[in-house]
Amino acid sequence: MNREHHYKATIHWTGNKGTGTDNYRNYERSHTIEIENKSPIEGSSDPAFRGDKTKHNPEELFLSSLSSCHMLWYLHFCAEDGIIVTDYTDEATGIMTETPDGSGHFTSVTLHPTVTVAEESMIERAKELHHKANQFCFIANSVNFPVQHIPVVLIK
């Protein structure tokens, strides 16, 4: 039987400069992302779309979700497999293509995790487990393009 997990987020637009959306240039794209019992996230659109570069934009959060989901599954499988990870950093990259009508979509995401393991004997299996993590990642399973990963595994 499939289990369902439900999520809720409240997005509140904070960019009304007094005249609402009476003109494309007269409002800010600023908003807050609120999830119960968690710190709010200040958001905006990408600066290419008149957004505030000091705030998180949906594209960055999307990329971060893919990277975070992969990491969490990866750490889970390493723990199950006896691979001792002592450090994990991912420099994730993504490409979004904007179409002539102004819409767009992500065409690729590549994860670049650098993983440190406790022993040299763990390196090969540590590399292999990225494939399994990719297969199980809830977010990667929800997108319409492949999520690539190019891991580097080091020893402590």
TrEMBL record:
<dbReference type="InterPro" id="IPR003718">
    <property type="entry name" value="OsmC/Ohr_fam"/>
</dbReference>
<dbReference type="InterPro" id="IPR036102">
    <property type="entry name" value="OsmC/Ohrsf"/>
</dbReference>
<dbReference type="InterPro" id="IPR052707">
    <property type="entry name" value="OsmC_Ohr_Peroxiredoxin"/>
</dbReference>
<dbReference type="Pfam" id="PF02566">
    <property type="entry name" value="OsmC"/>
</dbReference>
<feature type="region of interest" description="Disordered">
    <location>
        <begin position="33"/>
        <end position="53"/>
    </location>
</feature>
<protein>
    <submittedName>
        <fullName>Peroxiredoxin</fullName>
    </submittedName>
</protein>
<dbReference type="InterPro" id="IPR015946">
    <property type="entry name" value="KH_dom-like_a/b"/>
</dbReference>
